Amino acid sequence: MSDLSVVKKNRRQHILDEAARLFKEKGFGGTSMRDLAEQVGMEAASMYNHIRSKDEILEQICFQVADQYIAHLTEIEQQPGTYVEKIRALLRLHVRLVIEQGDAVAVANHDWKYLTGEKRATFLEARRLYERRLAALIEEGMAQGELQPLHVSVALFTLLSAVRWVELWYRPERDISPEALEDDIVTLLMKGLEK
Amino acid sequence: MSDLSVVKKNRRQHILDEAARLFKEKGFGGTSMRDLAEQVGMEAASMYNHIRSKDEILEQICFQVADQYIAHLTEIEQQPGTYVEKIRALLRLHVRLVIEQGDAVAVANHDWKYLTGEKRATFLEARRLYERRLAALIEEGMAQGELQPLHVSVALFTLLSAVRWVELWYRPERDISPEALEDDIVTLLMKGLEK
């Protein structure tokens, strides 16, 4: 990649990052391209050299997040290890992505509703497929006797839902490190609250 | 209570129930008093004999739900039993209220944002107090050695968040009974997914 195209790529990612921050703060509907240009410190006209529309920004953010979850899931599926280890790794991933990219994850979790047409259908299909693959890990873990015999969908959605609050709560100044937060959530979900 | 006032109270509750259904389906903003009158099969004018405004309906729904959670929590706190038993009872309560009154719980969970002024402040204070009392049960359970030693807020919010999906997923035609659903969620959260 030429130096110029690297600069252009970084600039584009910077616009996406700032957009995610604004969407989370003011809502997708409440954020204008003018707000965004101001936030990134560019003239609106030159911002359009990097990105065409608010819809395109939303698509980029949602699919970047989805792609990361899917890439990590693929890696975890292919690694050797028990189902317990795989599910632990996935729970850690869910917590870590929120800590490291909270704005983008929040946008992908909430503002995907503003995706339209084929993009929306593709995003929802990717999410469904991700859930099915995670459900398959849970089901196989139960079949192998590693996991409690529960209703697979109930286990799946309880796990996914159980980590959703982190997005609303976590800030670097909280009295817990990211690692301890991951540990505590994984312990509660895998070992249970009871001692 | 006179027969007439019983009829009036039932009529009022029927309006609230149908309002909760419409708010969940079309959103608080997307539901008009005209929609509601049509849904309950009354003239708008006579509906106003029972209820003054959409804001009043929202307040009633939110506080009825909050009052139930608080009343059950008070009962659970006062019952004899271990902390494990108390927290199990509370988790069951959270699942059961969603199954039995899913529309109203959904409105209280999401549309409280449309409460205004003092009502909003009172509702949020009630929610914070509920969370603090549940956190106290968790903390005492840890102090007694009944529960895993985790960050109290992390345990609290993981539990509360872990049951939130039920509202979106549960329908009577699902392939699981309400009791089995309660059992599976409580088992996962208290005993862990690992066998």
TrEMBL record, chains A, B:
Residues 9-69 form the HTH tetR-type domain. Residues 32-51 bind DNA. It comes from the Bacteria. Keywords: DNA-binding, Transcription, Transcription regulation. InterPro entries: Homeodomain-like_sf, HTH-type_TetR-like_transc_reg, HTH_TetR, KstR2_TetR_C, Tet_transcr_reg_TetR-rel_C_sf. GO terms for molecular function: DNA-binding transcription factor activity; transcription cis-regulatory region binding. Pfam families: TetR_C_24, TetR_N. This is DNA-binding transcriptional regulator, AcrR family. It comes from Catalinimonas alkaloidigena. The lineage of its organism: Bacteria, Pseudomonadati, Bacteroidota, Cytophagia, Cytophagales.
